[in-house]
Design a protein that fits this description.
By secondary structure, the chain is mostly helical. Helices cover about 95% and strands about 0% of the residues. It is built from three helices and no strands. α1 packs antiparallel against α3. The radius of gyration is 30 Å and the shape is rod-shaped. The two termini are about 30 Å apart. The mean pLDDT is about 90.
Length: about 130
Amino acid sequence: MKQDKMLAQMKAVTNAVYLREHAKVKPILDREAQLRGKLAMLKQQVEDSRALVDQSHEMKALGVDLQWQKWHTNARRDINQDLAQVTAQKFRAMDKLRHAFGRKHAVETMENQHKSDAKELRNKMLFDRLMKLD
């Protein structure tokens, strides 16, 4: 019985740790999706503006095309830097989540094995008791 309680407590703790690590991952994934969306939007803006800039000689004469290119390059660089940082955070968080899941799974397996062994032992004792009644 003591081992039953200990395994139940370990299961509760490992499950809580897993849920805590899982909760830490979601905001990171949301931020990554937001940054990837910004990159896609920036790419679409560049594609949309390319035809406009190519057709407008006034924009080229004023140097607007170069300013736009500079802004686009800087914006893409900044977003990619943020994305690299978020990706590194995600990998660290996912690693912690995998470890927490592994511990959780191991404790659940130990508890299931213990219950199975206890049931098997109880069945064997009952069978032996019944055999002695003959």
